[in-house]
Design a protein that fits this description.
By secondary structure, this protein is of the alpha+beta class. It has one domain (about 5-115): Nuclear Transport Factor 2, Chain: A. About 30% of the residues lie in helices and about 50% in strands. The protein has three helices and six strands, in the order ααββαββββ. It has helices spanning about 5-20, 25-30, 50-60; strands at about 30-40, 45-50, 70-75, 80-90, 95-105, 105-115. Strands 2-1-6-5-4-3 form a six-stranded mixed beta sheet, with helices on one face. The model has no long low-confidence stretch (mean pLDDT about 95).
């Protein structure tokens, strides 16, 4: 893991977090590859599909101005990476996200988001 890659991945996640804060899916889009996917449960219901579902949910959910986020782990090997992100107070919700990232044309992009919504 190089420090440059670590900083570049943190920058990618900033787009995601800034989008949560603004409540605008378009603000988080630069963090994700166009073909990215999302999976997780909201109560008993599977929330799964193209990453656009996250952007739409974020637009409907509104700004999370008081969100608190922490990168609790990051593992980088060459052109792939995983990140665990803890998000608290996303409009009253607490999430744990696992992201898989790929370095595409020199830029780190989230390829997949799997999440756990805490009760």
């Amino acid at each position: 893991m190089t420090n440059d890659d670590k900083k570049a991945i943190e920058k990618t996640l900033e787009f995601y977090i800034d989008g949560a804060k603004s409540g605008k899916g378009d603000d988080m889009k630069p963090a994700f590859h166009d073909d990215a996917t999302i999976f997780g449960y909201i109560g008993p219901d599977l929330f799964a599909g193209p990453i656009q579902k996250l952007f739409d949910w974020n637009d409907e959910n509104g700004p999370a101005t008081d969100i608190q986020t922490t990168i609790s782990s990051m593992d980088i090997m060459g052109t792939i990476a995983t990140v665990r992100l803890e998000s608290d107070n996303w409009t009253g919700h607490k999430f744990t996200d696992f992201f898989t990232l790929l370095k595409v044309d020199g830029t780190w992009k989230i390829m997949n988001k799997v999440f756990h919504l805490h009760a």
